[in-house]
Automatic annotation (TrEMBL):
Residues 183-234 form the tRNA pseudouridylate synthase B C-terminal domain. CDD domains: PseudoU_synth_EcTruB (cd02573). Belongs to the pseudouridine synthase TruB family. Type 1 subfamily. Keywords: Isomerase, tRNA processing. Responsible for synthesis of pseudouridine from uracil-55 in the psi GC loop of transfer RNAs. The gene is truB. Pfam families: TruB_C_2 (PF16198), TruB_N (PF01509). It catalyses: uridine(55) in tRNA = pseudouridine(55) in tRNA. This is tRNA pseudouridine synthase B. One of its GO terms (biological process) is mRNA pseudouridine synthesis. GO terms for molecular function: RNA binding; tRNA pseudouridine(55) synthase activity.
Length: 312
């Protein structure tokens, strides 16, 4: 195989930087414009943002994890246009009662499971070819379809505390499906407690197989780059795709895979529920993702080519 750049950089995105800027900065440090992230983080949010580089950009959509973990903070007392602390005031209500730990826990329990969410106007969801935040900036509010998301866990992390401005805040840990808006979740928490609310802080702790402890800051990347060792920080496509079942093919079939051939599904994986497999050569390199061929019995076809005969 060639020395062409291919890998995933597990970035810890800093607060105050857009995901687009973060990806551009990582790509610049690796000397490539071919870079893409696996799930947008708002500028005010810090956390796990895997960046695919070179030919690894082909697998971006497969690393958009089904499960993500967040540490968030909800503040009760007022809501905003953006559903976080950066927006303009929408509604305000004085908090006269005590928000207890028990009442907060009870509300969090109610929001676990499959729930419906309507994407906020300040989001990157596209409707009629235009992102919602673009409509919002023009002062236009449009109907957005609600969608089902899953909150696997919602845990209270501290006792609700009264702030100097009369608001009440508490932190929580959420394990949720992709497509979940934590901002919108905090608004729902407030509604169930009887108050307008917004998200006052958020960190993404994990995105699928990528966790906080495995990530690097841009500063760390710069230190490695000074020693020309930035490649040491990359995760291989093989490691990034390790959640997909693995099929190792013969040298003969490896060539056929890189040509995009349709293959027979091996007996040992026919009974698997999975419909997508990673196909590897004898050297342990992932050549492609294959899926069941609906038109041909016991056959599989390319889902995504990672290495081809022209990119060995």
């Amino acid at each position: 195989m060639s020395n062409e750049l291919i890998g995933v950089f597990p970035l810890w995105k800093p607060k105050g930087m857009t995901s687009f800027s973060a990806v551009r900065e990582v790509g610049k440090r690796f000397g490539t414009k071919k870079a893409g992230h696996t799930g947008t983080l708002d500028p005010d949010v810090e956390g796990v943002l895997p960046v695919c580089l070179g030919r690894a950009t082909k697998i971006v959509e497969y690393l958009t994890a089904e499960k993500k973990t967040y540490i968030g903070e909800v503040t009760l007392g007022f809501s905003t246009t953006t559903e976080d602390s950066s927006g303009e005031l929408v509604d305000k209500k004085e908090i006269k009662e005590d928000i207890t730990e028990d009442s907060a826990k009870a509300v969090l329990r109610q929001l676990e499971g499959v729930i419906k969410q309507t994407p906020p106007m300040y989001s990157a969801v596209k409707i009629k070819g235009k992102k919602l935040y673009e409509y919002a900036r023009e002062g236009i509010t449009i109907d957005r379809p609600s969608r089902e998301i899953t909150i696997y866990e919602l845990e209270l992390l501290d006792h609700p505390k009264k702030n100097q401005d009369g608001t009440v805040s508490f932190s929580f840990r959420a394990v949720c499906s992709k497509g979940t808006y934590i901002r919108t979740l905090t608004v729902a928490i407030g509604e169930k407690l009887g108050y307008p609310a917004h998200m006052s802080h958020l960190i993404r702790e994990a995105s699928g197989a990528f966790h906080r402890e495995n990530c690097y800051t841009l500063e760390t990347l710069d230190e490695y780059r000074l020693q020309d060792k930035q490649q040491d920080l990359l995760i291989s496509p093989e490691e990034a795709l390790s959640s997909f079942p693995k099929i190792t093919v013969t040298d003969h079939d490896a060539m056929r895979v890189m040509q995009g051939a349709i293959l027979t599904i091996p007996e040992e994986v026919k009974s698997m529920d999975e419909t997508i497999w990673g196909l590897y050569n004898q050297q342990g390199e992932c050549l492609a993702l294959y899926k069941k061929d609906e038109k041909r019995a016991d056959s599989m076809k390319p889902e995504k080519m990672i290495r081809t005969v022209h990119q060995r």
